[in-house]
Amino acid sequence: MAEIGAPTSIKGFEERLLQVSEKLPKRLRQCADYVASNKDRIAVSTVAEMAEGAGVQPSAFMRFCQILGFSGFSEMQKLFRESYVGGWPDYSTRLHHLREKAEGSPSALLAEFVEAGRTSLEGLLKTVDPVALEEAVKTLAAAEMVHIIGMRRSFPVASYMAYAFEKMGVPAMLHSAVGKLDNRHAVRPGDALLAVTFAPYSAETLDIVEAVSARGIPVVAITDTIVSPLRKFNAQTLLVSEVDFGAFRSLSATLCLAITLSVAVGTARQEN
């Protein structure tokens, strides 16, 4: 029996997930984190598969569904199947077929990563809110200096955006933490911070976001889920989900979003 009314749209589902996620105990929080990162799997997976992905028992995942307002997993799955019919790529099936044909050759690996990248790019238009993108561009275009931070897997994205801004004459500073140097005090009123981080979230990135946000300086974040800890710091978030192959996750969609944001900011500054 559902405890509250079930969400009737994907937008409503995301809002409900955001409302309840911070109050959940550890096991149910694992469910929330996994669902937020893998919404595309709900329509094509069993409750056992979703529970395994979240690292919990199926009974715990069913309880999670009920907390969101559904009678069970089937009702939640129905929402996603109806919302994405005809338009949502079943990447799990596609990658499974590729793995069956793969023999470990470089060309087979190339096919797998191309498929994962293509599927990530297809999903980008669904994860990025056009209004949020417009607001992020306005924030960065109005900044006297754009400070950019991204660690580990996010570093190629952060460094690329610093390069792109430099080429377009946009004042920007890349925070790399090289030599354990902490440059957060270089962020001044009138500036903006652009943070790039994905689960498991970089502690260095979260620290500087928290410190900068506390001073009232705007933060734009490229991250992966609606339950990202960056939400706690009032960051303007742009969501991007990358399909993984094995233990590796490409940056195809993330870099596409990065170049879009960079060019849009550069263009807006020229117009102003």
Describe it.
- The protein is an alpha/beta fold and 272 residues long.
- The chain folds into 3 domains: 10-84, Winged helix-like DNA-binding domain superfamily/Winged helix DNA-binding domain (Arc Repressor Mutant, subunit A), CATH 1.10.10; 91-123, no CATH class; 130-271, Rossmann fold.
- It contains 11 helices and 7 strands.
- It has helices spanning 10-21, 26-37, 47-54, 58-67, 73-84, 91-101, 106-127, 130-142, 155-167, 203-214, 252-271; strands at 146-150, 172-175, 192-196, 219-223, 236-239, 244-245, 248-249.
- A 5-stranded parallel sheet has the order 2-1-3-4-5, with helices on both faces.
- Helix 2 crosses helix 3 and helix 9 (155-167) runs parallel beside helix 11.
- The protein is globular and about 55 Å long.
- The termini are far apart.
- The mean pLDDT is 82.
- Residues 136-272 form the SIS domain.
